[in-house]
Write a structure and sequence with these properties.
Layout lengths: L11 H9 L13 E6 L10 H17 L2 E4 L4 H8 L2 E7 L2 E2 L9 E2 L9 E2 H5 L10 E5 L18 H8 L3 E5 L5 H18 L3 H55 L9 H5 L21 E5 L1
Length: 295
């Protein structure tokens, strides 16, 4: 990933259709001027996502700097679908659910997801092409997953549903993502859009930068952790060495051998315990699940 920026598409036909559309880097008067931001820190019957609120708070000024007015989605399915029709960007920070049997029932967990879920089927039924929505950012788990392996080639998931609804680009995840790391990924994506504009290249480049940042940060944390472990082990070895020296001195005293009869060099040459073989920590792979679908 250091040499290439990866993007995906649900089908060749979808890619051709996207490429045939004119990519615009600036907004026109006819384009939607809103960015729909949905933060689901608390979802019924689900664990809380404390960083979802922070994520939306971080990207809110960034989308405003792009020229879009942030809109609170409310959190209910009907409200999300309503605001989606007039939004250039939709950002959902919350739980995602990949249905184990029917991928059309995979859903974004809104406040009323238990009675009226925001499913793949409902997203695919939207016709947003007329308003040229630019980006659907699904900051949720498993939005690109299909658990029924017999349908793996059909690309029936939440990411492709957003594209079929009319979004030119979609960002999601193939499996679980870290609540905390989602904040950094989203921030860097929108910072890139701020710098480069709403272009096809900017979306893919932004996600590429974000995933590399999370990867490199994770590796730095592992290195620091390893250094701390080394220091602790060295301290333990020093303590063990001192204990061995004391034991050896007691043995010398028992045989009436005193330090003045030897040389300093000899004493320094007392063997120390060999370094124990460490198990290398597993790397952090929080950056891996993220994918970009688009032109």
């Amino acid at each position: 990933m250091d040499r290439a920026i990866s993007s995906y598409t649900s089908s060749i036909r979808s890619l051709i259709h996207s490429r045939e559309q004119i990519a615009r880097s600036t907004l026109s008067v006819a384009d939607p001027q809103h960015a729909l931001l949905i933060s689901m820190a608390d979802t019924p019957s689900q664990t809380s996502l404390p960083f979802a609120t922070e994520e939306v708070a971080v990207i809110k000024p960034l989308v405003a700097s792009i020229g879009l007015a942030p809109v609170d989605g409310g959190g209910h399915t009907v409200e999300v679908l309503k605001h989606m029709r007039s939004s250039r960007i939709m950002h959902f920070a919350g739980h995602g659910l990949s249905h184990p049997l029917d991928p059309t029932k995979s859903s974004l967990l809104t406040k009323d997801w238990e009675t009226n879920p925001l499913t793949v089927q409902k997203l695919r039924q939207q016709s947003l092409q007329e308003h040229s929505p630019f980006l659907a950012y699904l900051s949720s788990c498993s939005t690109g997953a299909i658990k029924d392996h017999s349908l793996a080639d059909e690309a029936i998931h939440l990411i492709s549903a957003c594209q079929l609804a009319g979004f030119r680009h979609a960002i999601g995840a193939l499996w679980e993502v870290s609540d905390q790391h989602c904040v950094d990924v989203a921030r860097i994506v929108y910072e890139t859009l701020k710098e480069d504009g709403l272009t096809d290249q900017a979306v893919a480049r932004g996600l590429h930068r974000a995933t590399r940042h999370v990867r490199d940060s994770s590796q730095s944390m592992i290195t620091r952790s390893a250094s701390t472990t080394d220091a602790a082990e060295d301290a333990l070895e020093d303590q063990n060495t001192k204990e061995k020296l004391r034991d050896l001195e007691r043995e010398f005293e028992a045989f009436e051998i005193h330090d003045r009869e030897g040389s300093v060099e000899d004493r320094d040459a007392v063997p120390v315990g060999s370094r124990r073989r460490r198990q290398e920590p597993l790397g952090s792979f929080f950056w891996v699940p993220y994918v970009h679908y688009g032109a």
